[in-house]
Amino acid sequence: MMTALREGVSDWPTAGFPGVRMNPDTLLPVVVNEDALESALAASEDPADRIMALLLENQPKEAAELLAEARYKDPESFRLRIFEAEVHRATNRLDRAIQLFRQLLQEVHGTSKEAIVHQYLGRAYFVSGNALAASEEFARALDLRVANAADAALIYSSAVALQRARDVLELAS
Predict the structure, then answer these.
(1) What is the DSSP track for 44-82?
(2) Where would a tag sit more exposed on the chain, N or C end, judged by fewer CB atoms within 10 A?
(3) Is the model more confident about 76 or about 6?
């Protein structure tokens, strides 16, 4: 187990959970401090945290099984609905992930959760190879986060993702 933050990742955006950061090249979350992750998981009773960890460990089948059980108990959970789409993204069913994120976006439009869904939708587009749609979603997430005076780490995460998508677009042209 690692006891310190993996070298060279201190400027990577946080990914919303201890020991996890967003890789600025792939825009996907990665474990950078296993000890911090394990400690946070041990202290958590939220099944969404374990689902996230299973996805990070590249165990989407196990994540999907735990997700089904958790969604049965709490079908309206916003976090679990996010992870439902994330399981699809992790298993390369990107069209389904995008569809679920778009549906969720319609439901949370105008709420404090809208920026979160734009960020996840942007990542799904980015992973699917659609850097233009990704940059549009990241720009919306960034605008909403700035307008709502979100935490600086969230604003930074959106800014890094937007810049990466724009860099990919520039390289493609």
Answers:
(1) ---HHHHHHHHHHTT-HHHHHHHHHHHHHH-TT-HHHHH
(2) C
(3) 76
Yes or no: domain 20-172 corresponds to CATH 1.25.40.10 = yes
C-alpha to C-alpha distance for 90 and 124, rounded to whole angstroms: 9
Please tell me the distance from the alpha carbon of residue 15 to that of residue 35, in angstroms, as a whole number: 16
H helices, E strands: number in the chain? 8, 2
Can you say how many angstroms the Cα of residue 97 is from the centroid of all Cα atoms in its chain?
A: 12
Give the Cα-Cα-Cα angle 138, 154, 130 (nearest 5 degrees).
20
A 10 A CB-CB count for 146 gives: 14
In this prediction the pTM is: 0.91
11 pLDDT tier (thresholds 50, 70, 90): confident
Per-residue pLDDT of 94-107, as tens digits, reads 999 999 999 999 99
CA 117 to mean position of chain CA atoms: 9
12 conformational bin, left if phi > 0, alpha if psi -120 to 50, beta if neither: beta
